[in-house]
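Lab notebook, bench 4. Continuing the backlog of folding jobs that were queued last week. Each job is logged with the same field layout so the records can be merged later without manual cleanup. Today's entry covers Hydantoinase/carbamoylase family amidase, a 399-residue chain. Filled in by technician R.K.

JOB TYPE: sequence-to-structure
TARGET: Hydantoinase/carbamoylase family amidase
LENGTH: 399
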Amino acid sequence: MPLDPQRFLDDLHKLRSFGASGVGKGVMRQAYSDADIAARRWLAGRMEEAGLEPHFDPLGNLFGLAGERSMLVGSHSDSQPEGGWLDGALGVVAGLEVARAAREAGRPPISCVSFQDEEGRFGVLTGSDVWTGKLVLEEADGLTDTAGNTLAEMRGKMAGLAGNFLPHNRFSGFLEMHIEQGPYLEETGLGLGVVTDIVGIRDMRISFEGRQNHAGTTPMHLRRDAFQALSSFNTALNSRIAEVVNPATVWTIGHVALHPNASSVVPGRVEFSMQWRDADADRLARMETLIRKTAQEIAADHNVTAELGTVMGIEPAAMDARFQAELAAAAEALAPGKWQKMPSGALHDAANLATVMPAGMLFVPSIGGISHAFDEDTYEADLVLGLQVLDSAARALAG
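JOB STATUS: finished
OUTPUT FIELD FOLLOWS
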């Protein structure tokens, strides 16, 4: 068979060399970094060698095109600032191998893709956000990273490569293979997960403004301590939100900026991120109501003011029923009883693609449930099994 698992693994390890961290298999390949651009140039070369037509669009999304209309398979190749070697990269190289094998066997055409900035240096799933029309390029250009760089400035580094945006109807559907990024498949002894839906996400910034003062001379009952307000908010929210969530719901305070952040000063201000995820849009809305109400009540209790920012995010996305069925049939044929349908708690480009074409997604296990870290890994046997299932489903859907 033209599908070549060793060629797939070799390409996957070669991609890891771009931005290699020097720690385990970790990579540092943020969107638009020198390592990211070098990796995309290398991928474009591999696509061309495979008989595909490399195409960069204005944002830096890289397509390997086969024919005038084809199935699209891929993911993203950028990483977190300190990321793992498989997150996104697995789906890109798997897409390349499946597309290459289809061409070598003379089967119906399959194209591949590496979307840009899926990891959100500038937004949320930025590359597929813009390509699917969720975000217009002019608005995206104004987005900034944590260092103050604009997207417009960074994508200017790829100006010599950029072409036009491809029409969605050039593709009949989208498949994405990814590591699970969680512990479920490993803990249950399953080798594959057929994704049913991708959770929605909401993200907002909240701040409590109190009164900065001396830590030694300000009595406790007179303090307007912003950090104590945050601490109380976290405790109260965890209790109240239990009334509306289910076991799959998650919420996180992931970034905290305390001012002035000094040991002898009562903190006068704290700003923090509040993120919550669920597959039910109504539940996400009820959680937002609870978060807002709790923040205002805690602010009043602590004599501080609360400022709640704009809520941003992505709606829950169901995967196409036919695509799920083909992935399930391939999984059962190649790994009988070793697969299960499951939701995705992480965001993926497939969530955006599902708004413009049928989409499906396949998971392989993550060792220890670890991702977004240098020690992210998956056994090569699981990677190859996933590739074989993806290829089988892609062939059926492309045909």
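OBSERVATION: The chain has a mean pLDDT of 96.
SIGNED: R.K.
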